[in-house]
Automatic annotation (TrEMBL), chain A:
Belongs to the cyclin family. GO terms for biological process: mRNA 3'-end processing; positive regulation of DNA-templated transcription, elongation; positive regulation of transcription by RNA polymerase I; positive regulation of translational fidelity; regulation of transcription by RNA polymerase II. The keyword Repressor does not apply. It holds the Pfam family Cyclin_N. This is Cyclin-like domain-containing protein. PANTHER family: CYCLIN. It comes from Naumovozyma castellii. Residues 47-145 form the Cyclin-like domain.
TrEMBL record, chain B:
Pfam families: Pkinase. ATP binds at residues 20-28, 43. The active site is at 136 (proton acceptor). Transmembrane segments: none annotated. This is [RNA-polymerase]-subunit kinase. Residues 14-297 form the Protein kinase domain. CDD domains: STKc_CDK7. One of its GO terms (biological process) is nucleotide-excision repair. Belongs to the protein kinase superfamily. CMGC Ser/Thr protein kinase family. CDC2/CDKX subfamily.
Length: 330, 312
């Protein structure tokens, strides 16, 4: 099959809102050349966006959605250090629209300048602001393309809201839910949001919270718990182990250690190592094998933005039907 | 299985053949889906001209139409990017109820109205059961397919059903179709606002003129309450606590005889159906299921077959 870009007039892409770890690595290989720099910048961006959200009184879901967009963008677009703040701000602007926490764009932009110590020149204020806004709006569409315009994600399900909903449903105390909510903030630093749906993350976070408080509950061993909450067990385990691994491997980056609520036992790396030991062998979602990954154009071919008509769909059968009819034509 | 088609194709899948409209945030073209020959409408979103970037109406339109597929809701066929512009491909719907109401050369029967109401309510019910509020129902947004099927369209103001404590803007719904709780400036409301709009549309279909045509927001309250009575705390507890309530003239609700005189051709069940939708208290107002199960749809005449309604 010839893949020379100039011949393409149309391209149809099926949305894949969640990917496996190996799939993510495969995509990032093409977009992130300096992994260390990317990780460092991501932590800075999280702090920056958190500060913006706090000052603008946005709920956690606005921050969560912005960070999903930020990470998703870098699966299909090159990581550029100097673009980070602009991209992060654009992700926040789009997130506000997605979760309907509206704010004036100028307010967000001006606060962004303040947080980044950008000294405004009174003569050129309007010009600087307008240029910044232009950059934000240009990126908006690129972010949405990276998400295949799939608005199902970050629409009704947000991790923090499901911590409360599941917590209530399972009869957990305020203390457990509060602790889970705090752990949930650290989870925003992980790529797990790109891998499993948020409600699976919420349940994994609740499990860790109960364990940190010292509760050894039978419900985590029962299949009905997962069936009742419509959580796939493998996705739950993927999230559970990913979060434990974060606390074990990057404990110094966690905010939880400095924000433990009263009455919760102190935590250390060892606390999480013990939890992991008790949890048994690490399991998670099934990975695609290397040969399938190589054969899959979604991962093998660099996203081509010069194609004249770039179509995005959520319906798998549509891709199948059009693919079949094309094969017949050729 | 590969989920991407990258086979070289010499032409684009969608053509834009004729510009048929231009709104604040989009230009609409008639076109064709090349692989099937299906006629479609392409809404090209004007991204660059907006001071706030991608317009909220476009986001809402995609967000909610992606979620719902129903015979009585417009179909979002495709989404594509071309020359840095976002394009929404929608099914081609050549007419709407506003055009039909206004066109005096078109005669329609009570059975036709019943058919349109049934289709509208099915579409609205589908939105509500998917936790979506439309927030802009009016004849102009009830489009008609070539075979006469009503499709609820324009989801530019839609939103998800809010959480119990979420604050919303009351500046939604085109004025004449705005429910009383919105006129009072309520910060929280439910799917009942859409049912009110459907009630006003039903009245308009029977009268063939707008039923509650307020000149401005204050006049809208006056017109609404003059026609249907000013709500009191008795039927709508605490309605008097809305800030604007004290300035209102108190009108009595219309008697059944007055309604009969105004809606001459309406049966008792039709009037009851309309009053259910135009109940002042949103908690007592009929929901979409109650409307669909109403006696009005069970009595004679049966709803017309949509394809047999002669609209031209």
């Amino acid at each position: 099959m010839s893949l020379s870009p100039p011949t393409f007039q149309t391209q149809l892409t099926l949305s894949r809102p969640y990917l496996t770890r190996r799939q993510i690595s495969k995509l990032q290989c093409k977009t992130i050349t300096d992994r260390r720099s990317y990780n460092q910048k991501k932590i800075v961006v999280i702090r920056y966006l958190s500060e913006l959200c706090t000052r603008l009184n946005f709920p956690r879901k606005t921050l969560e959605t912005a960070l999903y967009y930020y990470q998703r963008y870098h699966l299909f677009n090159s990581f550029e250090t100097e673009l980070c703040y602009t991209l992060a701000t654009s992700c926040l602007v789009l997130s506000c629209k997605q979760v309907e926490t509206m704010k004036k764009i100028n307010e967000i932009c001006n606060l962004s300048f303040v947080l980044r110590n950008i000294k405004m020149n009174p003569m050129k204020n309007a010009e600087i602001l307008n240029n910044f806004k232009k950059q934000l709006f240009h990126l908006e569409l690129k972010i949405l393309e990276a998400c295949s315009f799939d608005y199902r994600i970050n629409n009704y399900v947000h991790a923090d809201e499901f911590i409360v909903k599941f917590g209530k449903k399972l009869g957990f105390s305020y203390q457990v839910c509060h602790l889970a909510w705090l752990i949930g903030y650290d989870v925003l630093k992980l790529e797990i949001m790109l891998i499993v749906p948020q409600h699976c993350i919420s349940l994994a976070v609740l499990k860790i919270a109960t364990e940190l408080i010292g509760q050894d509950l039978e419900i985590w061993k029962k299949r009905e718990t997962f069936i009742k909450l419509d959580v796939q067990q493998l996705q739950f385990q993927e999230a559970y182990f990913d979060i434990l691994n974060f606390f074990i491997n990057a404990f110094e980056l966690c905010d939880l250690k400095d924000n433990l609520p009263v009455g919760v036992p102190m935590i250390s790396i060892d606390t999480f190592i013990q939890l992991k030991k008790r949890a048994g062998p690490e399991v998670g979602i099934r990975e695609m094998n290397e040969s399938s990954l190589k054969a899959d154009e979604y991962f093998a071919v660099q996203r081509e933005y010069t194609v004249r008509e770039r179509r995005y769909t959520l319906i798998q059968s549509l891709v199948k039907d059009e693919s079949n009819s094309l094969e017949k034509m050729h | 299985m590969s989920t991407e088609i990258t086979t070289p194709i010499t032409q684009t899948e969608y053509t834009k053949e004729k510009k048929v409209g231009e709104g604040t945030y989009a230009v609409v073209y008639l076109g064709t889906k090349q692989s099937t020959g299906r006629q479609i409408a392409v809404k090209e979103i004007k991204t660059s001209e907006f001071k706030d970037g991608l317009d909220m109406s476009a986001i809402r339109e995609v967000k909610y139409l992606q979620e719902i597929q129903h015979d009585n809701v417009i179909e979002l066929v495709d989404i594509f990017m071309a020359y840095d512009n976002l394009n929404l491909v929608l099914e081609f719907l050549p007419s709407d109820l506003e055009v039909i109401i206004k066109d005096r050369s078109i005669l329609f029967t009570p059975a036709d109205i019943k058919s349109w109401m049934l289709m509208t309510l099915r579409g609205v019910h589908h939105c509500h059961r998917n936790f979506i509020l439309h927030r802009d129902l009016k004849p102009n947004n009830l489009l008609l397919s070539p075979d006469g099927v009503i499709k609820v369209a324009d989801f530019g103001l839609a939103r998800a059903v809010p959480s119990p404590h979420e604050m919303l803007t009351s500046n939604v719904v085109t004025r004449w179709y705005r429910a009383p709780e919105l006129l009072f400036g309520a910060k929280h409301y439910t799917s009942a606002i859409d049912i009110w709009s459907v009630g006003v549309i039903f009245a308009e279909l029977m009268l063939r003129i707008p039923y509650l045509p307020g000149q401005n927001d204050i006049d809208q309250m006056e017109v609404t309450f003059r026609a249907l009575g000013t709500p009191t705390d008795k039927e709508w507890p605490e309605v008097s606590s809305f800030g604007s309530y004290n300035k209102l003239q108190i009108y009595p609700p219309p008697s059944i005889d007055e309604l009969r005189k105004r809606f001459i051709a309406a049966s008792e069940n039709a009037l009851n159906f309309m009053c259910g939708m135009l109940t002042m208290n949103p908690k007592k107002r009929w929901n979409a299921i109650e409307c669909l199960e109403s006696e009005y749809f069970k009595e004679m005449p049966p709803p017309s077959d949509p394809s047999e309604i002669k609209i031209k």
